[in-house]
Amino acid sequence: MNIDIPYYFARFVRRLHYFLLVVFAFMAASISAALLLPTEYVSSAKLLVESARISDDLAESTVQIDAGTQLQIIQERLLTRANLLAIARKFDAVSDHETMSADEIVRTMKEQTSIRQSGGRNSARFLNVSFTTGDPNVAADVANEYVRIVLEENVEYRNRLAGDTLVFFEQEVDQLARELLDKSQEVLEFKQKNSDALPDTLNFRMSRQSQIQERLTASQSELVSLADQRRRMVRFFEATGSTGQEAELSSEARELQSLRSALDEALLVYSEQSPRVQMLRNRVDRLERVVAEQMPAGVDGEISRKSLFQLQLDEIDDQISKVEFRIDELDRQIVELQQSIEATPERAIALDILERDYARIERGLERANGNLAAAKTGERIEALAKGERITVLEQAVAPASPSKPNRKLIAAGGTAAGIAFGFGLVLLLELLNRSIKRPADLTASLGIAPLATLPLIRTKQDMFVRRVIITTALIVAVVGVPAMLYGIHTLYMPLDLIASKVVQRLGV
Predict the structure, then answer these.
(1) What is the pLDDT of residue 475?
(2) Is 459 helix (H, G, I), strand (E, B) or coil?
(3) How many CB atoms are closer than 10 A to CB 344?
(4) CA–CA gap between residue 419 and residue 431 (Å, rounded)
């Protein structure tokens, strides 16, 4: 494919005035903007997040928060509406802030403020704070004010967090101590109320029950012995008329007493029809007759013996009553012990539940006391600024030279954009113009070969009008555009604000 460079160059020269118009317009606009944009100074401060000065192995702070998260929290607290309004009014950081609304002041302050974090895990964490404004001293003052707020917020935040942790565990210890006291009182009341059925005295009560059972058996034997003694005494008195205490008994009387005792013992084992019982009863009857013949008769003696017999009988009855009372008391004690032994498992379960609750609260109190001690240590570490903290590496100073705008770059960029748009306009006009411009176009369109071509012949008047129009357009581009920009900048709104609003609307 052959490109007719002379032809295209001639076409470009023919439309050179459009190209120059665009280039001069963009150049005038960019140079005007570069000259009209206000000078801005940037003052920056650099902060460092230092690690704790005391090793965590020795004493650990209770403020356990990631440095990045901590800086993000401080940044959000720094850029609050109240802080930005106070700083803007204190240092006149925003021009014409008297006529601006609070929302506009806050938005402008945020746009002029830059806060960046650098570093990361396993490396030092830095915070760069900068402020941009037209006055270098104001820029430094605002940046340093940001630094002061950051340092104060960091100390306040860490101290408050450590203090809140300490207060929480103090309240936790107090609450658990009250719960432990209430639970111990409940356990004590339960033990006092159920002292006769506690599991720790079960073996003692079972042993006591066995002892009482043995005493009951002995008392029952004693009761049987007293009843036998009384019965024998009655029999002896009925058979002999004597109590056996008036004088020394004869051999027959002593033998009679022995046989009666043997008969009573045999009746406990054998039946009435047993040969042994029959033999003992016959011997007792025979000896009773012999002893009755040996006893002397007499009225006074008979009365005396009956009185003595009654006294002895009353004494035995009294002993029997005492033994019966003791048996009843022992029976009552056995019943009570049996009831308490049967109730022990239920009481043991209830007591075990109470003691488990008590042990659980006690363990919780021990842990809370340990946490409280750690919280006190952590609070003291933060109070003495021995924990993680933010320090100033570089203080903000008033810059000696402005940081923006870069006027040369703006002017050069505008000129380059004008050249690009100028070429684009010329190319667009050529593409839109579909008329026949050269013999080759005539041949391609109609399929004929022209014998000769005549160029467009302009008169002097046409040339004059064309030159006036081109010159006027160029003057308007070179003079009118800067004048219009200046008028907008001074009479309506500064160009930097317009640019920021455009950028904000576009979401860039």
Answers:
(1) 74
(2) coil
(3) 21
(4) 18
